[in-house]
Amino acid sequence: MTAVLPSRTPAPERPTGGRLIDQFEYGLDAPICLTWELTYACNLACVHCLSSSGRRDPRELSTAEAEAVIDELQRMQVFYVNVGGGEPTVRPDFWHLLDYAIGHDVGVKFSTNGVKLDRARAEQLARTDYVDVQISLDGATAEVNDAVRGAGSFATATRALENLAEAGMKDFKVSVVVTRENAGQLDEFKALTDRYGAQLRITRLRPSGRGADVWDQLHPTQAQQRELYQWLLANGDNVLTGDSFFHLSAFGEALPGLNLCGAGRVVCLIDPVGDVYACPFAIHENFLAGNVRDEGGFQRVWQSSELFADLRSPQTGGACTKCAHFDACRGGCMAAKFFTGLPLDGPDPECVQGYGETALAARDAATVTPKSHIDHSHKGPVRGQPTLLGMPSIPKAAPARICDESPLAGLDLR
Ligand code: SF4
Ligand code: SF4
Fold first, then answer.
1. Whole-prediction pTM
2. From ligand 2's centre to the CA of 329, what distance in Å?
3. Could you tell me which of 62, 58, 8, 69 has the C-alpha nearest to residue 297?
4. Which pLDDT score is estimated for 319?
5. Looking at the CA of 325, which ligand is closest?
């Protein structure tokens, strides 16, 4: 593991009382936001996919290995896991693993583009406790959504929403990545979500995976960030945001949600081949802490990895510590800084005070922005593949050799 963070003093003991956020900074015995991407396979080819998904990785965890991970999560008392991908429901054993997790006291919240959520599956989900579903939608209209997620994807997602609503499913979510194209549709998203009796969840576009290729073009402008902040102040109590927008708290009043980068402290990712990263938006070897197949499994990685110990140590805010808004914003998102080539102890590229833009402009012409070593993007055209108007064609990195063999073997992509 390569050291990625400025050097720090050794980690002190986690405080046993006081504010929760102070305890979170020192890490917990088990993650509270564990994301598990079950597969890199996906029927779509969204332009901003954070994990560059498309083709299945033949090294994917087997059913038995996935069950062993769930057993471990049960022992660690991880109460729920965020399951994603790729498109998790194209794994033939997805429904079995869902039942297995729930049967072992691990609740499941899964994200899907809706491709498999027909009436029968919706009714099955409505009958199941401890399961939550998030349907991804990146435009409140087909025109805006399909430009990013592909032709027909709006119709697929809204059909799934209809099926869930008609089946009587409670508390399902519509999950939106806020972009320059849809930032003006927040009220429409809210109305659409209310229509299905669902809840709106909005997240930040990070320059991770294929998102790095379109971030310059799609990330919200400064004016849109301010409007988004005002909108969240007015509507935030009924909208989920996770840790997405705490950098906006530098505009003034703190927003609801986790106001802290939880990477490696309360957040981590298990990827389809069992690699454990500090955060779902940090799929890069610098943030790779270990693999669940290693001796000691996930628990050992979470509790003993050198990288996570480093992330849980007191951090310097670097240039940000001079900022009057540091307590609210804490320098923003580690992954956003890393994948735009900015120092991790400096301002976020979307710093609302404008310091991020200055830092981006001041990057050396020779700066090479880090790229993930993982890319499972489809090699050929995909039905309905999105094309952003005015976008330059995106050069594809040479695919990992391992993915050239039977990339979709055993998967039902209907
Ligand atoms: S790196 Fe960014 S996305 Fe990841 S946990 Fe930190 S703030 Fe959240
Ligand atoms: S300078 Fe740093 S702490 Fe201040 S608002 Fe910008 S990112 Fe946040």
1. 0.89
2. 6
3. 69
4. 85
5. 2
